[in-house]
What we know:
Helix content is about 25%, strand content about 15%. By secondary structure, it is an alpha+beta fold. The model has no long low-confidence stretch (mean pLDDT about 95).
Amino acid sequence: MSKPERHVFVCVQSRPPNHPKGSCGAQGSADLLRAFQDTFEARKLWGRFALTQCGCLGPCGEGPNVLVYPEGILYAGVRQDDIDVIIDEHLIGGTPVTRLYPTPEAWSNEP
């Protein structure tokens, strides 16, 4: 297996209901991960790029969160209709999708 050009991590962390920090799992990240997997399959991206589920990435209240390496770009509030944009603009095009960056407050409001 060759080294992937980029590696996508999708947070699927779940916490109990009403947890003050919230969680990506409570905001639909499992469905988001499946949609990423389906898109990778349909577009034949496996091998060129890697996709992995992971635990907490930080700003849970703004999730679901997605992290792309090697750049270390974090996306927040990612929805299924953002997947093709992330793939086309960032993974393939090399240009991060700045509208999906977490807000500065996301890092300062952690419980």
